[in-house]
Amino acid sequence: MAKERTLSIIKPDATRRNLTGKINARFEDAGLRIVAQKRLWLTRGQAEAFYGVHKERAFFNDLCDFMVSGPVVAQVLEGDNAVAKNREVMGATNPAQADAGTIRKDFAESIEANSVHGSDSAENAAIEIAFFFSEIEIVG
Ligand code: CMP
User: Fold this and answer.
1) Cα of 8 from ligand 1 centre, angstroms
2) 119 CA distance to ligand 1 middle (Å)
3) Residues 70-94: what's their mean pLDDT?
4) Of 37, 136, 28, 48, which is closest to residue 89 (Cα–Cα)?
5) Whole-number pLDDT of residue 2
6) Catalytic hit among 5, 26, 104, 117
7) 123 Cβ neighbours under 8 A, 6+ residues apart
8) By C-alpha distance, which of 19, 112, 109 is closest to 73?
9) Mean of the pLDDT values across residues 67-94?
10) Residues near ligand 1 (Cβ within 6 A)
11) Helix (H, G, I), strand (E, B) or coil at 31
C-alpha cells in the first residue's frame, strides 16, 4: 500500500468542546500518524480561500462563518492510503448518515458543525497541506 498524506482540520465545534485529544486518538488508533499540527483561528479571508471550491454553494457563507467562530486544529496525517483511511475514520459529511464508530457519528453536531474536515483526494490533499504547512513543518 502507498504511504500518503492528507490534510485534516478539527473544526470549531470540536475545539470548543475540548475534543482534540479524543479525535486525535481516533486517527492514531486507525494507524494514521500526526506528522504536523497547529492550532489557529482562521480569518474570514483564509476560510473563504480554503473553501473556495464551494463558493457557489448555498451553504458557503454559513460554512465560512462557522469556520471562523473559534479555533481550529490543522494537521497532516500520514499512513497507508491516508486519504481514504481518514475519510473512513471521519464518516459521512452528514452525521445523520455516518456509520457507527466514526468521528462524525460520535461527535458531530450537524452537517455544518461536523467536527472534522479531510481532503477528498490525493491531489487536493497536496493543495490543502500546502495551504497550512511548509515542508519544514512536516516531520514524518
Ligand atoms: P467539509 O468536509 O469540511 O467540506 C465542506 C463542508 O461544508 C462540509 O464538510 C460541511 O461541514 C459543510 N456543509 C454545510 N452544508 C453542507 C451541505 N448541504 N452539503 C455538503 N457540505 C455542507
Assistant:
1) 14
2) 12
3) 98
4) 28
5) 78
6) 117
7) none
8) 19
9) 98
10) 54, 59, 63, 93, 111-112, 114, 117
11) coil
